[in-house]
Amino acid sequence: MLSADEWQAVRLTLLVALAAVAASLPAAIALGWLLAKREFPGKFLVETAVHLPLVLPPVVTGYLLLVVFGRQGPIGAWLESWFGLRFVFDWKGAALASAVVGFPLLVRPIRQAFAAVDDRLVQAARTLGAGPLDAFGTILLPLARPGIVSGCVLAFARSMGEFGATIMIAGNIPGFTRTIPLMIYTLLDSPAGTARAQGLVIISVVIAALALLAGELLERYGRAKLRGAIG
Amino acid sequence: MSILRVSCEFRYPAGFALQIDFTAGEEATALVGPSGSGKTTTLHLVAGLLTPTRGSIALRDRMLFDSSARVSLPPNARRVGLVFQDYVLFPHLTVAANLRYGLVRRRAEKSPDYEHLLQVLDLAPLVGRYPHQLSGGQRQRVALGRAILSSPDLLLLDEPLSASDPALRESISGYLARVIDEYRLPTLLVTHDLDSVRRLAARVITMPAGQTT
Predict the structure, then answer these.
(1) Which residue of A117, A126, A127 is the best one to mutate when testing the B interface, meaning the one whose CB has the most B CBs within 10 A?
(2) What residues of chain A lie within 8 A of the CB of B78, using their CB?
């Protein structure tokens, strides 16, 4: 069985992963749409920036986040003075790190899903009286749902395993920022840690597998509803 | 009396331009021309899905587009119903939801009656189905009904009789004739096959192959 500390790490990990996905989803949808449906100068620069966390060492991402969102950082200082939001040594910092590292995995399937929707469906909606936002919400978004679900699952799973960026900005504080990967790392540093970490490893595998399974089922359900495509 | 007045130029991204000048009245008008003569482009310009390089498009007393006055109504404000050649039904919505899509957004004083339209187009047994569960002819009837229920001032039909099956063509032709007669909607249809639309169109305008400049 897991100890109280270990359960706390599980709960914190789930909170961090869910917050990371929920907070970054609106931006991912907006960017996915922009990259899939619009041409604009400097598009490749935006694409590069979106995909950068995928190839950067997470510790480097964490360092950059610390510089920008730290208490003396340009954004961090502003957020703290205006909204009382603090990221350093706080679970919100862990969520920020997870959101940034998982962002490319969230945007990619959403972008592909938007690109796969025939533009004429939105055009048809517009001729039937729908404004741009109405057509987006009633046609484009529901048709891209399988890709959105897929992106959420990937980002959630990535978030569950986030270590390097998290430890840089949020530290490894028991009960506050110690997520499952950090807990396992800490346990392995203690006597008989290998055996004690087994429970958390199993929990990690189960949560990740359940997330993938749920995502697959939701995606299949969505695709079944859309089968037949345009007609 | 002309209902629709089109006089505009459209420059394709590839560089060449299409010059279009015609008027259409209350009666159903067919725009006939070979492939590539710009028929579908013309419909999209009228519907607001493409923007002319210059010129004007007027529907009754409303200016839909006028480059000199910088007027360009968005598609949702034009009250022009377009039936695409391959129907473009919303695949995630039932037939009923497809049909009501325009009806709920353009609830006009004299909106066509939903139940009556189901009868005219024989759609009542299909309302609970999804587009992928329909035959080609059924899809076309849904697309036609969807456009009519959006209370358009003008109905645009893109190659409505392009089905390869002669029996299906005959059936669609019958439904179109019923709809045009029943709703008295000014209709502009484009086709590459003049013979197929003689029964529907009171007037024919030929778009020459060399109209692009």
Answers:
(1) A127
(2) 127
In this complex, do A126 and B88 lie within 8 Å of one another by their Cβ atoms?
A: no
Torsional sign, CA B7, B8, B9, B12: negative
Which residues on B lie below 8 Å from A229 (Cβ)? 91, 132
pLDDT tens digits for range A131-183: 999 999 999 999 999 999 999 999 999 999 999 999 999 999 998 999 999 99
How far apart, in whole angstroms, are the C-alpha atoms of residue A105 and residue A154?
6
User: For residues A25 and B51, what is the distance between their CA atoms, to the nearest angstrom?
Assistant: 33
Is-contact B80 B48, C-beta < 8 A? Answer: yes
Average pLDDT over residues A84-108: 95
Question: How far is residue B75's CA from residue A38's CA, in Å, rounded to a whole number?
Answer: 19
| A8, A179 contact by CB (below 8 A) | no
What pLDDT is attached to residue B195? 76
Cα gap B176→B94, rounded to integer Å: 22
Query: Given its phi and psi angles, is residue B38 left (phi above 0), alpha (psi -120 to 50 degrees) or beta?
Result: left
| Residues of chain A contacting B89 with CB distance shorter than 8 Å | 230-231
Cβ proximity of B112 and B120 under 8 Å = no
Whether A91 shows a pLDDT value over 70: the answer reads yes
- Cα A214-A217-A221 angle, rounded to 5 deg: 140
pLDDT tens-place string over residues B61-108:
999 999 999 999 999 999 999 999 999 999 999 999 999 999 999 877
